[in-house]
Amino acid sequence: MSLQEQIEQLAKQAREAASVAAQLSTEQKNQLLLAMATALEAQSEHIQAENQKDISASADKLTKAAIDRLTLTPQRIMDMSAGLKEVAALEDPVGTIIKNSTRPNGLKVKKVRIPLGVIGMIYESRPNVTVDAAGLCLKSGNAIILRGGSEAIHSNTCLGNILRAVCTAHDVNPDIIQVVPTTDREAMSILVTQTQYIDLMIPRGGESLMKWMAENSKIPVIKHDKGLCHVFVDEDADLEMAANIAVNAKAQRPGVCNALETLLVHEKIAEQFIPLITGRYQQAGVTVRGDALTQKLGSQVEAASDTDWDEEYLDLIIAIRVVPHINAALEHIRQHGSLHTETIVTNNEKTAQYFLQAADASAVMWNASTRFNDGGQLGLGAEIGISTTKTHAFGPMGLEELTTSKYIVEGTGQIRE
Amino acid sequence: MSLQEQIEQLAKQAREAASVAAQLSTEQKNQLLLAMATALEAQSEHIQAENQKDISASADKLTKAAIDRLTLTPQRIMDMSAGLKEVAALEDPVGTIIKNSTRPNGLKVKKVRIPLGVIGMIYESRPNVTVDAAGLCLKSGNAIILRGGSEAIHSNTCLGNILRAVCTAHDVNPDIIQVVPTTDREAMSILVTQTQYIDLMIPRGGESLMKWMAENSKIPVIKHDKGLCHVFVDEDADLEMAANIAVNAKAQRPGVCNALETLLVHEKIAEQFIPLITGRYQQAGVTVRGDALTQKLGSQVEAASDTDWDEEYLDLIIAIRVVPHINAALEHIRQHGSLHTETIVTNNEKTAQYFLQAADASAVMWNASTRFNDGGQLGLGAEIGISTTKTHAFGPMGLEELTTSKYIVEGTGQIRE
Fold first, then answer.
1. How far is B253 from B372, CA to CA, in rounded Å?
2. Is A406 within 8 Å of B395 when comparing Cβ atoms?
């Protein structure tokens, strides 16, 4: 079988399995999820052995940090298992009635949540995404095709096989979860043209993957793109609160998309705030790159270049810029932001409301760390990622966002006049 | 200026205007809509004169039906005006709070409807779409770029200019509504790659347009594709009701996407129902193409070929097929349907619920004509079209479906531990 035929068959199998996934009851889905959690724990050693193959193959190619991301420790396997149990405990979105009305002609109209169908997920590095994404797609009644990074092929295939075996043991078509069985990049090109079988592609990774998807996918795409997040410290800010938020948003976990990348400071408070925040960043081990005024007022500030305003450092580096007013801050965000998360720190309610309305992002925050743009923190439960695409799902994508809706219309013979 | 620069500039202007559109109050938007309605009525003669240029240019190229679709009569201009007034009367979706919660850490989390941003609309023939789409996009706080058929360029440009002049007279940036000022097809190719300026493309038209969009658009697309709708007459159907629905769904307005194209008949009632329905179709002037059994049982039935099951006639022609059971009907729908509208006629509630759950379409109906899959009929108000894309909006796309949502998070200095 050619690669083309192989990927087409896989997509076709997913489409057929999608109707099985859609018909599973909540109880069946929860049983599967819990059995999958148990299976992962039981096969922890086997998973680690397969994972070791990936690590050995990558030892001289990847950075230490990348190897760490790739590694499945016993604890991380337990975490994947716990994640599945958590998804089992979440409410099933399928079948929820969103709207309900009776029309003047007596037609009963319901708008009801249904699964999307077949979801293709393309992701890099961390093999835990294989399990997290499969669990969320199963609970939302979808079939999933998983395409992880080539460096994790043994781990992902092994995890996929364990989940599939649980389906088979429960008399459920295992094709509701499929891992693309090759690292051939051509497979991806074939996958993203299977418009008749796949309903949605979710890429999660770096800029080159996003660019590639935008160029090549013929299937609707929801990007989980970079987060170039800002905090704007207004002239009416509580400066101690602002410093706490700016340090937390940057340094608590710098490698994630909702971490802060550029701090914007109102010029009226720059003289007080810049020395305070640069000192705090120094203590936290954060390198500061600033504009001329920040360099003048702060301690140990490197000169920021124009490219710094567009850089997602994902590291203990921050860019700081002083702006003359809130509209300059908003204009900076418009030019450099990535529609992800924007925070204002101020005690002035009017200023805050203006910012919350005008800033274009999936989450806008007032007096809170950007790190709260997260499914768990916002109350959605587990998430498959944070969408920076405005259509369908904007922001954290939980179970509900993995569904769509259809109208169910019940009549007694109504016809149109 | 090159065409490339011209279209890029147009898209960039739309992006800038989108922030204006998003900030308009409900009252401002309604005032604009009503003023636009008045302007259309006042300039009816001018519109007709411009429309006449299109008609003259197309006289020897288009069918009589196509010319009719292109023609703007005084009544049709009044209808466009009435449509804008209707949109003014609809509830403004922008700012609606979808969810509202307070997290254990005190964060107040709201999920709020916001405009999508910039919408690109590509459509064929009827120039009224220019006004309908502009009105709906304005009310939902979006900027719109309109690209109608080349045969309607004078009409569309004229209508766009009238709407834009109303904006200018109200001190609103007229670029919230723009008509692509050229019929050059290359303009479309440039338009669908303006990913940094346009958030969503809505194509409304025939299969070749849909195919072209899927191949070429780098921007998310919501297709308003064909409707290959079915009615399944179950063994437990009230046959008189079934005949009424089947005739209404086919013949009441055959040229629209929610009209019936293929009638599926349970074999247990075929002997009674086929003579009844073929007689009724004859009376209604509908040509019947049927499978062998339909030909045997019915009167004046032409032989259906395999391609008939995939044809959207949009005409007074119907395909009829006898199926052995409901699952065969569902399988036929899976193979030939277009996710649009599927109806079952039955008095058996269990059979009905099975069908309503299993049939994959944006609207599934029980004992009602397929013609009810329509924004107005389902209670959404005016619609921009009926989406056959599962993501974002599936089915009739009204004002709500022209929005997305963002999280607004209010804190008191919360940081993540």
1. 12
2. yes
In terms of domains, do B247 and B137 share one?
Answer: no
Count the domains in chain A. Answer: 2
Q: Does any domain span residue B389?
A: no
Q: What pTM value is reported for the model? A: 0.93
The closest CB to that of A389, out of B220, B372, B389, belongs to B220
> Cα–Cα distances in Å, from B252 out to A413, B258, B371?
15, 11, 8
Of A23, A404, A416, nearest to B391 by CB-CB distance is: A404
pLDDT at site B126: 86
pLDDT in tens, A231-261: 999 999 999 999 999 999 999 999 889 999 9
d(CA A174, CA A166): 8
Within B13-171, strands assigned E span 97-102, 108-115, 118-123, 143-147
On the question of pLDDT at B215 being above 90, the answer is: no
Q: Do A78 and A194 fall within a single domain?
A: yes
State how beta strands B386-387 and B363-368 pair: unpaired
**Same-domain check for residues A234 and A206:** no
Q: Could you tell me if A185 and A277 lie in one domain?
A: no
Chain B residues inside the 8 Å CB shell of A408: 356, 363-364, 366
pLDDT at B172 over 80: yes
> Can you tell me which residue has the tokens 């509908």?
B286
Chain A residue at shortest CA distance from B109: A378
Say if residue B190 is in the same domain as residue B123.
yes
User: Could you report the predicted ipTM of this complex, rounded to two decimals?
Assistant: 0.94
Yes or no: say if A273 and A294 are a contact pair by the CB < 8 Å rule: no
Instruction: Indicate which CATH number applies to the domain containing A22.
Output: 3.40.605.10
CB-CB under 8 Å, A195 with B214: yes
**Shared domain check, B345 and B309:** yes
Is there a domain that residue A81 lies in? yes
Q: What pLDDT score was predicted for residue B206?
A: 84
The secondary structure of residue B92, as a DSSP letter, is P
Nearest CA in chain B to A344: B410
Residue A384 in any domain: the answer is no
Are B378 and A103 in contact (CB < 8 Å)? yes
Contact by Cβ (8 Å): A217, A202: no
How close is the nearest chain A Cα to the Cα of B16, in Å? Answer: 10
Tell me which residue in B220, B248, B379 faces A220 most closely, judged by beta carbons.
B220
Q: Is residue A198 part of a domain?
A: yes
**Is residue A123 pLDDT above 90, yes or no?**
yes
Whether residue B358 and residue A107 make contact (CB cut-off 8 A), yes or no, is no
Question: Chain A to chain B, count of Cβ pairs less than 8 Å apart?
Answer: 199
Question: What is the span of the domain harbouring residue A116?
Answer: 3-225+391-409
Considering the domain architecture, whether residues B162 and B33 belong to the same structural domain is answered as: yes
Q: Which of A379, A404, A414 sits opposite B372 (nearest CB)?
A: A414
Closest A-chain CA to B405: A394
Q: How far is B20 from chain A (nearest CA, A)?
A: 10
Indicate left, alpha or beta for A145 from its phi (over 0: left) and psi (-120 to 50: alpha): beta
